[in-house]
Amino acid sequence: MAAPARDTGAFDPLVELHGLCTPELADRYLPIPGIPPAKYECQEGHLIVTPYGGSANAYAAYRILTLMEPRARQLGRRVYPTLNVRLGISRWIQPDFAVLGQPARGRVWIPSESVLLVGECVSPSSRTAERIDKPAMCAEAGIEYFMRVQVSYSKGHAEVVLRRLGEDGTYEVHAKALAGSTFETELPFPLSFDPAELLED
């Protein structure tokens, strides 16, 4: 049986801010010293810390950004890797990629009304999606598009699903494709590619 943790008297954000966390407090106390680089997200004031995904998700996010960037820029949009997207007073997420309606110009916290699309890269080993219901939170915040990218090297699998906010306030499938076929959409900007491109060869 492991010995109980010793109380050092140090301020621990995971304990002291439980249920109370806000972006303002995050600016003051995060990142937490002594732990590996991680994503810090928050749902109803509860801080959620998850490790970054592996190389499969990192590469997929990089590739989707390179595919999106020229098309989005033509319409004045901007694509970014992980950002702090603020969804409410005590809610924020750090999606794997995002598209904003205009340049962020150095802002640290991005309000949801500035976000056109958020995207997540997941894999069978990914735990991020199980810890926080990002589509529901983004829909509630009024973000029009949510993209989910799933990759698996063991299965040679890649899938892209783009959802658009419907009149009932929930996401509906707008476009989807598997590796070996073509993902194609005109909105929120023209995009056409084979999801297999998201796998390293």
Automatic annotation (TrEMBL):
Top-level division of the source organism's lineage: Bacteria
Pfam family, one: Uma2
SUPFAM superfamilies: Restriction endonuclease-like
Gene3D superfamilies tied to this protein: tt1808, chain A
Domain Putative restriction endonuclease, first and last residues per copy: 35-190
Name of the protein in its database record: Putative restriction endonuclease domain-containing protein
Species per Swiss-Prot/TrEMBL record: Actinopolyspora mortivallis
